[in-house]
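tool=predict chain=A
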Amino acid sequence: MKRISLAVSVLVIGLLAVPQFLQLDAKSPDTPKPKRINKVVELLGRGQPIYYTGSGVGSGGGGFEDGVKLAQTWADFISYGMEHTPYDLPKLKEFMRGLVAGGPTKSGHRTPAVIVALPVGGIDEATMRANYWMVQQILATGVHGIILCHARSPEAVRQFVRAARYPFHRQEVDKGELEEGLRGSGGSRFAAEIWGISDAEYKKKADPWPLNPDGELVLGLKIEDIHALENAEETAKVPGIAYSEWGSGDMTMSLGYLERPDPLPADAQQARARVMAACKAANIAFLSGQISMDNIEDMIREGVKIASGANEAIADKGRRFTKRKMPW
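tool=predict ok
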């Protein structure tokens, strides 16, 4: 009898020792079965526009409780701000744990996709080479993508992509288009647990899509000033990039405006059109703001694939317009 009691005690202690966020991922038989880990990849791969909401330390969130709250978000992904906020990786890790604890999503994904705004800008190649470590540290928290702000040169963007890849992923490396990846061994365990897969499987899947058709990471750009605009066409074509935006706030500031004018002046409209054309030529998604209930359908017809500033009602209208199947 004592042996049975001891065995039960050991079992209970063992269960308690499992991290909480790894115990709360049970799915009911009715939960949808997504085909991809990253909902952004799944939707953009089907040609569906996507919609996002924001979080991060700058908005007063970013910890475990914020993650639990946003786990059932209406949005397709969460934009996590670090560009203008503290570089607080422990808080980001807690946020990712919270998403797992509050999941799965209504669409059956373990968590919503999370894309982080990188604190360092893509000013030039040297800057990105010196700060590549930020990319691998952010990815080690289990996020699903990163966006590079002020992407001024294709050389900087190539270093950005390089920093996000493991050296054994060879797409475009053997052709000489990209350099060998810089992401090192030892930083994947926590990320794999967040994704709910083995460490080895994580390393296989943690590569930029659509460069790697089986990749689950999404890398984006902000071509958001007049210097970046000069190289928009070449920058957008760098292998490994999935989308870009024109960054209306920074772009209009770069054009000489104190605040973003409304309506947009001709020079700002031309900048937006150039970035959109560059995205279309490179076959990557274009992100745009100024989305509203009145213009969402026109924006989709125009070619916008990622809607900034949308809310649940706008997203619902857009999803119905593109005949996206439930659950969203």
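The chain has 15 helices and eight strands. Confidence is low (pLDDT under 50) at residues 1-26.
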